[in-house]
């Protein structure tokens, strides 16, 4: 099989001494309002070379405004925006042009020109920049290869699937060898399988080329699949930020907890309706585990140390990057009055979250 990631020209990050370089993006105390509606409220953040930063929030949280601020498409009311060490706050359009050429962008609805072929769409930024035809064609050929579109060079956008259109969008965004790729809900219009393949492609591009990526999304699944670090926005403010693993394992803000809810298992309804809060033969627990705790034989240890046999009702271990993280619903026999306290003490020492959901008497 052909190597899908041939040498496609040196991207800027690989030529840089990472330790000596400034962040690719630095925002300091950025504010932006629209007719009294605060879209960005004192936002400070940095994007490090080579990382994938995910920005998540509900509709209206300020994500689009934030990403548009990074490439100077959005004017700000206060604060400072730096790109690759250069203060770009308040630069005129003409001064912003060379900055924007170093920032690629992909969009939810792809923004392709329908009257141009795939190859022409991809080569367009180079044509606009005045690149000679031969160099342009060579670059387009590299990008078609990189994005798996070699056999679609002469197709028109209307002849492509959503995933293929987004591949064209990615190839076009990479044409000018940007330092930074911005992704604005790039997978929101795609089905889960296509989303997965596009995220894989972005991850590969990040790994192989060292390309820095900032993406905005409203889906925690996207963050989990691709990001190294996450910033959670709510009403224009950063309510939480950290490594994806830390934020998933120990979310602090209510916004993050609520955004994570859709990814976390919950007790199936037919079991939940059998729960008795007053008491029963078995105590039903929700146990959250992450990192080392998730690598332990937790239930076997409980059986040995407590002398009681826990039953797994539901849940399991998932992974964020290479780190395990999970939620288990277990029923543990609690025959005597002291057992409940003994069981809780045992698990409390080992897990990151523990909740008593109730009791069951008959096996459910
Ligand atoms: N050009 C504009 N004019 C007026 N209000 C705006 C404008 N752009 C954004 N806003 C307001 O700023 C707030 C943040 O909007 P923004 O589009 O940045 O949020 P978002 O998180 O990207 O939302 P969505 O996920 O729905 O796209 C919202 O209250 C929005 O109505």
UniProtKB/TrEMBL annotation:
PROSITE patterns: ABC_TRANSPORTER_1, ABC_TRANSPORTER_2. Pfam families: ABC_tran (PF00005), NIL (PF09383). The keyword 4Fe-4S does not apply. Belongs to the ABC transporter superfamily. This is Methionine ABC transporter ATP-binding protein. Keywords: Amino-acid transport, ATP-binding, Cell membrane, Membrane, Nucleotide-binding, Translocase, Transport. GO terms for molecular function: ATP binding. It comes from Kaistia terrae. SUPFAM superfamilies: ACT-like, P-loop containing nucleoside triphosphate hydrolases. InterPro entries: AAA+_ATPase, ABC_transporter-like_ATP-bd, ABC_transporter-like_CS, ACT-like_dom_sf, MetN_ABC_transporter-like, NIL_domain, P-loop_NTPase. Residues 25-260 form the ABC transporter domain. It comes from the Bacteria.
């Amino acid at each position: 099989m052909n190597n899908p990631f041939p040498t496609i020209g040196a991207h800027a990050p690989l030529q840089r001494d990472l330790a000596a370089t400034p962040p690719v993006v630095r925002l300091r105390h950025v504010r932006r309002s629209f007719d009294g509606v605060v879209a960005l409220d004192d936002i400070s953040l940095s994007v490090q070379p080579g990382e994938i930063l995910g920005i998540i929030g509900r509709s209206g949280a300020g994500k689009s405004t934030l990403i548009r601020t990074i490439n100077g498409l959005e004017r700000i009311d206060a604060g400072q925006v730096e790109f690759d060490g250069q203060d770009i706050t308040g630069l005129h359009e003409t001064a912003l042009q060379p900055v924007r050429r170093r920032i690629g962008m992909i969009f939810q609805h792809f923004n392709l020109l329908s009257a141009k072929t795939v190859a022409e769409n991809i080569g367009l930024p180079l044509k606009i920049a005045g690149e000679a035809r031969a160099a342009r064609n060579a670059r387009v050929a590299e990008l078609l290869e990189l994005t798996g579109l070699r056999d679609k060079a002469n197709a028109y956008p209307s002849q492509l699937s959503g995933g293929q259109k987004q591949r064209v969008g990615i190839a076009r965004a990479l044409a000018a060898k940007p330092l930074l790729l911005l992704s604005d809900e790039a997978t929101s219009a795609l089905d889960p399988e296509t989303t997965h393949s596009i995220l894989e492609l972005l991850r590969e591009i990040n790994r192989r080329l060292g390309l820095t990526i900032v993406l905005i999304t409203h889906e925690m699944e996207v963050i989990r699949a691709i990001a190294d670090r996450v910033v959670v926005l709510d009403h224009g403010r950063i309510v939480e930020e950290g490594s994806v693993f830390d934020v998933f394992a120990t979310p602090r803000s209510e916004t993050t907890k609520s955004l994570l809810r859709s990814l976390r298992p919950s007790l199936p309804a037919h079991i939940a309706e059998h729960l008795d809060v007053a008491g029963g033969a078995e105590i039903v627990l929700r146990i959250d585990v992450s990192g080392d705790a998730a690598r332990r034989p937790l239930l076997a240890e409980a059986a040995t140390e407590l002398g009681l046999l826990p039953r797994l009702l539901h849940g399991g271990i998932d992974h964020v990057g290479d780190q395990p993280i999970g939620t288990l619903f277990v029923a543990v026999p609690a025959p005597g009055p002291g057992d409940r306290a003994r069981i809780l003490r045992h698990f409390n020492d080992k897990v990151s979250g523990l909740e008593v959901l109730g009791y069951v008497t008959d096996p459910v």
